[in-house]
Amino acid sequence: MPDQTVLIVDDEYAIRDMLRMALEIAEFRCIEAENIQQAHTLVVDERPDIVLLDWMLPGGSGLELLRRLKRNDTTADLPVIMLTAKTAEDNVIQGLDVGADDYITKPFAPRELIARIKALLRRAGGGEKNERIQVADLVLDGESRRIFMADEPVDMGPTEFNLLQFFMSHPERAYTRGQLLDHVWGANVYVEERTVDVHIRRLRKALQTPEHDYSDLIQTVRGTGYRFSARGIGVR
């Protein structure tokens, strides 16, 4: 994915330098800002393909810049990944509610960040719907819209498939029922939030067979909603 531009917004030079070196090795072009004023100028002048935005910045928070970008029609679709030391679920949800596409908490491995950048750019380019995603023996084939567990096909309804595809494309992140409705059903479709719970139950049931049980991949996050996670349940 050469020649795509990443705007790094962080007030710590050491972090920007580390990110720039890792991203340039991965063939990205990097531009840098240390505050929201510089960042907004670079967004307008350079039109980056994606923004890595630190939460805490001098002269205003990254959340303030995020709101500004999402309010403007010319930058509303610009992908943004929040870089944050804030690990509380409500802080993460606040960033996602404002319009962040993803987040990663410090400290993080550059390889994980680069993988997320590439995945987000694929989604922005429309490639997510056709991708093939695998977690252990669970395979989702976006092109054929089929699910397999240990090479055995899984019977699953279209809404459950769409939910699983969204979850597998956005692992380890908690989403509210409202956010899932927007992403999976569509922001302009009126569906009650409790509908999400019904389809989650159906999805978990579909992920259970006599030989395999991946229902625990869909985790309930108390007070928030749901997340897809392969951590701590013996799945790699």
TrEMBL record:
GO terms for cellular component: cytosol; protein-DNA complex. Residues 130-230 form the OmpR/PhoB-type domain. GO terms for biological process: phosphate ion transport; regulation of DNA-templated transcription. CDD domains: REC_OmpR_PhoB, trans_reg_C. One of its GO terms (molecular function) is phosphorelay response regulator activity. It is found in: Cytoplasm. It comes from the Bacteria. Residues 5-121 form the Response regulatory domain. Residues 130-230 bind DNA. It holds the Pfam family Response_reg. Its main location: cytoplasm. The modification 4-aspartylphosphate is found at D54. Gene3D superfamilies: 3.40.50.2300, 6.10.250.690, Winged helix-like DNA-binding domain superfamily/Winged helix DNA-binding domain (1.10.10.10). Keywords: Activator, Cytoplasm, DNA-binding, Phosphate transport, Phosphoprotein, Transcription, Transcription regulation, Transport, Two-component regulatory system. This protein is a positive regulator for the phosphate regulon. Transcription of this operon is positively regulated by PhoB and PhoR when phosphate is limited. This is Phosphate regulon transcriptional regulatory protein PhoB. It comes from Parahalioglobus pacificus.
